[in-house]
Predict the 3D structure of the following.
Amino acid sequence: HVTPSCFNVVASAQFASEVSGMKIFNARDGSLMAAVSFWDMNTFGFLTFDSKDKSAKMIPIDHSFVRESVIRSVQILESPSSDLFALFGGGNGKILIAPIPKTSDFSVETEKICFLRLGTNPVTIFSFDDRFHVIAQSDRPHHITWHKTSHKLICSVINIPNFDSMAQFNFGDQAGFVTIKDKEIRFSYLQQSHVPKVNIRSIPIGKSVHKLIHLPQYKLFAAILHNFPVMIVPMSHWPLLRSELVLMDEETFEIVDRYELEGSDGKAPIEENGSLMGRFAEIGWSVVFGELEGPVDSSAAGAVGSVLVLGTSLTNDEPKEEKGRNLVFKIGEG
């Protein structure tokens, strides 16, 4: 159970349109900022937060790019000189790269804005733990980073098929990323120059992999599995969906534990008694790993616990009444 007193609200803001992409980060002066874009407002730029009056201020980027395409994803890229840049991926295959203001009091230097064209399909950008490189895909996946000595931006095509999602992993001193395409995952390692060495290993999975994260301290992967790819099938098929959270051995990919989400009875409405059973099944949508600074449960008072948090969605025939749950799982030995 979480109470409002557990959270310290830094700032809040109300916007007239749904956010399409957001990345929160610390500016050079240590202040909290966010790169943000909206679906309907043809607006994108940076948010700055004032902790005194708990307000947020928008620093817009006035550029024709927003009239060309809706921005779908946002990530941060850091140069060797520690300058920060925001990458805005558009629906037209282009990336706009804008310098991030060094403090919240400065406007965006529009004369330093540049573009990369990756293709004609919408751009999705995936980040790593560090901010020195990203993977972006449109028609093909690309690796984007900075040259360490010339400080020039390098964008190179990666020889792997397009994918649905990506996860970072670390095997000892080996770092890399896993790309996920329906029922198959592919391992690619990062060399010391951050250049990907691709297609090292390909693993078929019996079900559609929706999300995947690595838990190196447990030598496990956690994954959300569906019995069919939920993002490309019509909603009329969603009552047939079955979804589960699984833990898989990082070497063999054998399932060592699983939690099956509630299925659908095909016709019953959502009950007011708290049951999530309805005409549509419950869908695993996102999963994160973290450490709690307090006890995970009453039997472990005072202990710090490792947990997985699974976010679910329960779609029904009335989109305004969609529901979902946050399920917290304690990770134990054995």
Summary: The CA atoms of residues 299 and 317 lie 41 Å apart.
